[in-house]
Amino acid sequence: MRRSAALAVMVMVAVTVSGCSSSGGADAAKATGPSGASAESGAQGLSPGAVPGSSGPSGAASSGAAQAGCTIFPADNVWHADVSKLPVHRDSAAWVASIGASAHAHPDFGAGLIDGAPFGIPVTTVGAGQATVKVTFEYADESDKGPYPVPRNARVEGGPNADGDRHVIVHDTAACKAYELFDAHPNADGSWKAGSGAVFDLRRNDLRKAGWTSADAAGLSILAGLPRADEVAAGRIDHAIRFTAPRTKKAYVWPARHAASSATDPALPPMGARFRLKASVDISKFPPQARVVAQALKQYGAILSDNGSPWFFSGTQDDRWKNDQLNALKGLSGKDFEAVDGSLLMVDANSARCRP
After folding, report:
1. Keyword annotations for this protein (predicted)?
2. Which of 94, 175, 296, 303: disulfide with 267, CB 3.0–4.6 Å?
3. Where are the domains positioned within the chain?
4. Distances from the Cα of 127 to the Cαs of 30, 65, 318, in angstroms?
């Protein structure tokens, strides 16, 4: 992924439209996140983003009971915002055209191997007692120092010999945190080196410092945007999905914190732009796994998080996916999507909490 210098965040006026569910009614207290950004802690709940069945270092499914108290961000977090009723963004047509109105959607995840390598983004689950290790960073000035509880056998996106983004995502269910690395490589002594890294407290609505990257170009959590096979098995994905576009603008919009382009063409979308599958798209004949993903794209949408192939939607690496079902998503194309005005959900530019 391409990196660039920090840019000013675009702050917009918020009004109550669509919005997030919340498991608590009162406003949460202000706090300082791991990156030092002022943010609000959110209400905690057991339903949004719970992750029974994430894979451990060995690839085996983890116990849901061990994760029952750890959700992937609070219910009032922007990732869980229902965007089905938000107005269409004024730049929607231009943004869709720039990504590719005729380009087909692609589920960049599934079971098995492609060209000899696993595909999708693996999630390594650890619990209490996992030893922490030192991680050194190329982009140290925008990375959380750690240490990180990354096992020696943590799974790497694309496999141990991959030459791509090499994301490593560690979900610590005891601390309820996500440790996310970009371009991660293990050292012989058990430590790791990476391009960049970020730590997310999954019980809070903290955002990274304005202008900071993460393991993703937009400075967001990768784990939060991954469809998981266990969610699909339960019949519902309750969050937005991470996706990529070939070219982005030298700008970012809430909740993104970082831009990754030098282009100034106003027809290009900024990092953090939110899209949804149009309500008019008929998904009733999609096979079960594809239908659950498509329904999430209608209700929660997708957040532009990185530069890459057009309409490539990320998900977990998991042998429980059924590739023949997911392939139905390839029948969707750019013309089936529209950008929405996500700024209407914003309460505070430095918090991921959104309006109910």
Report:
1. Signal
2. 94
3. 42-345
4. 28, 12, 20
